Amino acid sequence: MNETRHTNESARVLDTVVIGGGQAGLAIGYHLARQRRDLLILDAHERVGDAWRLRWDSLRLFTPAKYDGLPGLPFPGDRLAFPTKDELADYLESYAIRFGLPVLTGVRVDRVRRDGDRFLIEASDRRWTARNVVIATGGHQVPRVPGLAERIGASVLQLHSSEYRNPEQLRPGPVLVVGMGNSGAEIALDVSRTHATTIAGTPSGELPVRHGRAAARFVLPVVRFAGLHVLTLGTPVGRRALPKLAAGAAPLIRTKRADLDAAGVARVGRVVDVRHGKPVTAEGTALDVANVIWCTGYRDDLTWLELPAFDEDGTLRQERGVVDGVPGLYAIGQDFMYAVTSATLPGACRDAAYLARRMRARPAVPSTTGAARDETTAARAA
Ligand code: FAD
Question: Integer distance in angstroms from the first to the last C-alpha of the chain?
């Protein structure tokens, strides 16, 4: 890499750069700002909240509003309602402004490396230097699509769930949704209003009660408690359960098999092959569909982190967000990093409070004003 092409954003060394300004980055940013650290949050999207805004149009949260607030600012309105994805996105944007969090948007970090006891953070031709780095880039970096997708014919429109917005994007004719996690089930129901729909796969289980206001009042508090305090790496039962839970999809929460049946969605086994350009199920049936939506998840991509921070299998070596062997490097919001809920709003908030307490042990570089800060979301809103 050309070492001279970078523009140093400031001569000073920042205390902390948080990479990712979604809910996890904002939650840790809130605590670090209160520790009066010289902080900068970098985010690849154009607007704070875009990770939510860019999801499909009909998406509502599974967690009720009472569990969707970040530290210091409860989610507004009816506590038992399930916010839309745009309401959550707007809440995150207003949160960054309210607490003056210095989020610089439209900046995709493409390299982080060590320079003595500091980190160099690079994004295209820009560069920052910091004593600490927090990775808050979320678990949805690279859409995962099985290799057999390449053999499906050009007459079939293929989308990953990250690209799906609404049924208007689809071609006339039947739709196959592949993957029966929550995204698959919800998208299949959405699509079934306008297209003949089939869903492939088997769910790992179902929440045994109807999702809604009554569940928000009586059942989800129990689920939340178990997810925050029992299914964690801090309990024997959690240590046994987490690897198994991490290996599979989450149980269906809102849209269950009975809902899909009632909407006329056909259910088939896994897609295992392609014949004459059409997907073939485990039962050996070739499905004559015009559209395939892959709801097959994501994989992490932290290859831009040029640091000795990974196990042999490529997992980030961390304990409750503190990266082992790289002083000053931290992570937040990663799936299952401490609890089954670590990648959700309540989990990221709890983990952020813990991580901030751990980071307090490192002396802070006090907050100042500077060139990079002038461009941030909070500065523009002021
Ligand atoms: P993200 O929201 O993905 O934010 C990461 C940010 O990092 C992004 O803004 C991105 O631009 C930025 N970024 C990534 N790489 C870089 C880089 N190299 N440089 C700079 N910036 C970068 N959780 C709940 O609690 N309740 C729910 O109801 C709920 N529903 C969900 C529904 C769906 C369909 C999905 C997919 C998830 C849902 N979740 C829910 C889980 C979780 O809350 C979300 O995935 C949430 O967006 C994760 O927040 P995050 O901040 O960790 O990551």
Answer: 38
